[in-house]
Write a structure and sequence with these properties.
homotetramer; mainly alpha; 10 helices; DNA-binding; Regulatory protein TetR (chains A, B, C, D); transcription regulation (chains A, B, C, D); DNA-binding transcription factor activity (chains A, B, C, D)
Amino acid sequence: MVLCYDRSMATIASVTASGSKADQIIAATRSLFVRYGYRRTSVDDIAREAGVAKATLYLHFSGKEEMFREMIRRFQLLQEERCAAAEAIETSVENKIVALIDAVYGTTIEWFENTAHIEELKSVALHEISVPVDEPVQAFRRRLTRMIKAAEERGELRLSAVGSSAQDVAQVLLFAAYGAKHAAHATHASFHAALPGIVRLILVGMIPADIA
Amino acid sequence: MVLCYDRSMATIASVTASGSKADQIIAATRSLFVRYGYRRTSVDDIAREAGVAKATLYLHFSGKEEMFREMIRRFQLLQEERCAAAEAIETSVENKIVALIDAVYGTTIEWFENTAHIEELKSVALHEISVPVDEPVQAFRRRLTRMIKAAEERGELRLSAVGSSAQDVAQVLLFAAYGAKHAAHATHASFHAALPGIVRLILVGMIPADIA
Amino acid sequence: MVLCYDRSMATIASVTASGSKADQIIAATRSLFVRYGYRRTSVDDIAREAGVAKATLYLHFSGKEEMFREMIRRFQLLQEERCAAAEAIETSVENKIVALIDAVYGTTIEWFENTAHIEELKSVALHEISVPVDEPVQAFRRRLTRMIKAAEERGELRLSAVGSSAQDVAQVLLFAAYGAKHAAHATHASFHAALPGIVRLILVGMIPADIA
Amino acid sequence: MVLCYDRSMATIASVTASGSKADQIIAATRSLFVRYGYRRTSVDDIAREAGVAKATLYLHFSGKEEMFREMIRRFQLLQEERCAAAEAIETSVENKIVALIDAVYGTTIEWFENTAHIEELKSVALHEISVPVDEPVQAFRRRLTRMIKAAEERGELRLSAVGSSAQDVAQVLLFAAYGAKHAAHATHASFHAALPGIVRLILVGMIPADIA
DNA sequence: GATGAATGAGTCTTCATTCAT
DNA sequence: CATGAATGAAGACTCATTCAT
């Protein structure tokens, strides 16, 4: 199995490096939101964790919401970078799909440590803070569809064999991967390990005999 | 397509019928938690929505947590009832699988109106209130696996064709359905409509030529 | 030592006998106020302890305050009865004084079981409910003074020996008895046992040699 | 009569001086608890009296209980200081006893303004907040006993004359002083004035003729 | 007479945010 | 830049009392 993305290029550490005060604050924000969720984390907690006075937080960010927004922004930056890397790899379509899903969902698991509060965070982002956390997922779906279409055109996948469109296949892949990400007790490692099998099961009927 | 479960038997209305005060309170609880989540819904809000004084809530329930617990209990009762009905239908394995998934996830979508707060609620249930909301999902997985195994023994599915175990297939079905349930803007209707296609795509390689 | 008062004449049981509903309620009131104090005892608690519905309490009493007033009234009735009995005994002045103090303070200890909440109760009685709980104590002081004066006239006590008035001696006796009553962990029995020694120590300088 | 303790050394003012916010809060706490008792005083009341926002109270103290504890702590500090001063005076045993009692009970009357709520406060301290308010009183009893024993050894008191032990005499002195402190309407001044007479009456039988 | 159900006013406590220094 | 101190608004929960049955 190829290494899906070059971890040295973009790591959590590189995005949360504790250089500036702002970095410390965002690192504290991520850590606490992961552990306790948005609501249960008080601004006091963040200040204590970041080792600064509460008022200092307000020097750098307009409030709790902006700290959250910035934390998400850094996450999406990392995710985006890894996605681009995954698309650039030259390998079989199956491997590329695995790499892309891993870049998106694997990064999510890594950053958010598969926290039980992930969807409280998502819910807050969408409904109270207006961060379009769903947009990257849509982009992901489009990328995946494009990848499958290209493979079909190259003859690497035969969608006609299962009577489904590229959109349908991308959709089901995405659904299954999402489900796997949310399986209880999933870690980045377990997700990483299970992914190829899931992709293979879904694609199995579409791979021409001469390739399989 | 068969009707997955007989809606006249067990509907949300039948479980939240506004007969007693307790029913009114639980109905208000459900409605507000769906709209605003657990934390953002205050006990005052619930009292206002239910049309009773705050103290009355405490006459019927020991606190906010117990209102939540009772709301979940009623949901699980409904879900359980529909699952049993789905398992009892006599039809093709594909239809039965669709019916079972619909009984579990369709009911969830219906009850919680696919709220963006679903996982805040799940998180609160699991971590702060100790309601085992995951247990029914495990039961669901076992039922699904059993169904697939039975179909294989009857020759209705050929797992050997894709080299997967019944557990694997059940797992992927569950992952995909979970993903579909969480798709943005999914409604009970859209989920209901998409489900057969998803199930078919995953099972397509395992259905013997003489049946398909 | 003579028996200070005839217990068969007036006992707590005879005043709180659980005949009527009102009796049950007052018995519950006494028991709970002794155990938890006035504020910490809720009307719910009283209803539960008395085995009646909360609304029933309000049939018999206008509110929590009146239950308290009635409870005090019954206590004072008992105390009064025992005082009269103590005064009627024919014995030495020292014994009579002991008997009188015991009738007042011993009854208090018995009724209120030397509760730590005694003065919260007194404070509530005086300041919020306007029950003159101090009045009986003043009457007691007058009785004691009268007793001492009579003894002096009879030559049984010689106040001139210590240069104090009957009022002064009564006062100090009363102070010391009050202190003994409030000693930590005092029970009715321990108070009863310590009382003669205390009285003797205070009177010792006034007893004529021919009597002592 | 000697001045029992040098008031300029340790006064209520010096302990509650309204320098810091915490001081203001404790001063308000003392004043309100004295006037209304613990339960009847709400945190809102304290905030209003102290002239700060309610949240400010929680900045300085963890809650109502801690405000109470701190108020008691300051009282005990003052009491302790005055006791030490009383013991150091060089004068007759009678005067020293009066001075010591005044340091303990006089300070209590002064600080708590002989409030009717004194024992609700004591009860709350002992039973709900675990402040050992009885311990200083025990220390006081030991000091008093020691003082009497020393006087006996010096021949200043003759306990044999009344057939009592030093403990007994200390006990009765303490009881009587406690009673005087709790006399209705006692003020610090009236207590101060009555104390020497009370002590004298109790000690009168033990003072050798050559001294008296 | 007795009660189950209901409530308005009040309790203590927390939190995101601001401001003078 | 950084902070200690302060706060208004809101949160969950309790209680003595009332009323229709």
